[in-house]
Amino acid sequence: MNRRATKAAGGAAQAGTGAATLHGVVIAAHGRHYLVAPDAGGAPLQCFPRGKKSEVAVGDRVEYQSTSADQGVIVAIGERRNLLYRSDQFKSKLFAANLDQLLIVLATEPHFSEDLLGRALVAAEANDLKPIILLNKIDLEAALPLARERLERYRELGYTVLEVSEKKHPEEARAILTEHLRGHQTILLGQSGMGKSTLVNLLIPDAEAATREISTALNSGRHTTTFTRLYKLPDGDHSGGALIDSPGFQEFGLYHLTEGTLERAFPEFRPLLAHCRFYNCHHLHEPGCAVLEAVEDGRVEPERHALYAQLVHEISQVVR
Ligand SMILES: Nc1nc2c(ncn2[C@@H]2O[C@H](COP(=O)(O)OP(=O)(O)OP(=O)(O)O)[C@@H](O)[C@H]2O)c(=O)[nH]1
Ligand SMILES: [Mg+2]
Ligand SMILES: [Zn+2]
């Protein structure tokens, strides 16, 4: 790689200047600023996407051209296996691309939102990602029974629910998490203060230093996470894998999903769908609806159906 020659070319941002096209992975995103780790190794470069609209996500494989020793321009995004994002009526916000798993990080305290948990599960199902639910801070014993009780429903649905105390029992937590995370590309999602970054620091030896470095590069520096960042898991056993830390969020709009995707994103609905009287049943008010019958006799939880109905309502607000 000859960065100096590229710089001398004086305009890698314009096409056809003869700048070498290099390959890398996007490891951090903050607005229109990205950090790209070169495939060839070496320090990450600060990159901007070519063109006005930035649609690059952490985890993307990209082609870039370097414009100086530590800067570059992204010229192409590689094909994605998947792209996780949230959306409202007006805009969408990318989480990350090329994922295997979604780790939903909850805590005994602060009180977690079941609405956000339900939406994260739907997002995982809709993207064919394995969801794992993590209950952290089980050392806070006063709040533990209620948190466990609220998660029972999700265990019954067949979801994996793990319990740890990242702070009080870090060794145990590390063993449990390593078993589920090694070899996979996993994004950590959750509200602020649940322990996502603490988890990353527990599993990635030099994460804290890397975070500080990037905070400086991207002009942020607060304790709470303000940008999405990918960390490679220690590769002692060559299993590979990476963790993606993301800022805590309060809203998880799924306006981009279709009704067909939504109904199948509820695993307890799936065996019922073929038994509705109408083939195009919306499972909201229709007579002979197998889902509504299951809600009626307790096989489907009313709260889960209410989330489905709310999501259907939201997607109906979008002018397609
Ligand atoms: N009691 C207790 N506190 C914990 C535990 N794990 C993390 N914390 C604390 O919870 C607070 C929030 O942790 P973070 O890891 O910064 O949370 P986060 O999910 O990254 O939050 P955002 O970056 O704002 O989204 C910190 O003060 C941690 O020290 C735990 O197992 N027990
Ligand atoms: Mg954080
Ligand atoms: Zn139905």
Give the SSE layout.
Blueprint lengths: L2 H7 L12 E9 L2 E6 L6 E5 L11 E8 L2 E7 L5 E5 L4 E6 L3 E7 L6 H13 L3 E7 L7 H13 L3 E4 L6 H12 L3 E5 L6 H8 L3 H11 L10 E5 L9 E4 L13 H6 L25 H7 L5 H15 L4
Parallel strand pairs: 3-5, 8-9, 8-11, 9-10, 11-13
Antiparallel strand pairs: 1-2, 1-4, 1-12, 2-3, 4-5, 6-7, 12-13
Enzyme class: hydrolase
Keywords: Cytoplasm, GTP-binding, Hydrolase, Metal-binding, Nucleotide-binding, Ribosome biogenesis, RNA-binding, rRNA-binding, Zinc
GO cellular component, one term: cytoplasm
Give your account of this protein's structure:
By secondary structure, the protein is of the alpha/beta class. It has three domains: 3-77, Nucleic acid-binding proteins (OB fold (Dihydrolipoamide Acetyltransferase, E2P), Beta Barrel), CATH 2.40.50; 83-245, Rossmann fold; 259-316, Orthogonal Bundle (Ribonucleotide Reductase Protein R1, domain 1), CATH 1.10.40. 29% of the residues lie in helices and 24% in strands. The protein is built from nine helices and 13 strands. A five-stranded mixed β-barrel has the order 1-2-3-5-4. The chain has a two-stranded antiparallel sheet with strand order 6-7. Helix 2 (114-126) links the parallel strand 8 and strand 9. It starts with a helix and ends with a helix. Mean pLDDT is 89; it is low at 1-16. Bound molecules: guanosine-5'-triphosphate, magnesium ion and zinc ion. Zinc ion (ZN) is lined by residues 276, 281, 283, 286, 289-291. One of its GO terms (molecular function) is metal ion binding. InterPro entries: G_CP_dom (IPR030378), NA-bd_OB-fold (IPR012340), P-loop_NTPase (IPR027417), Ribosome_biogen_GTPase_RsgA (IPR004881), RsgA_GTPase_dom (IPR010914), RsgA_N (IPR031944). Residues 87-252 form the CP-type G domain. Pfam families: RsgA_GTPase (PF03193).
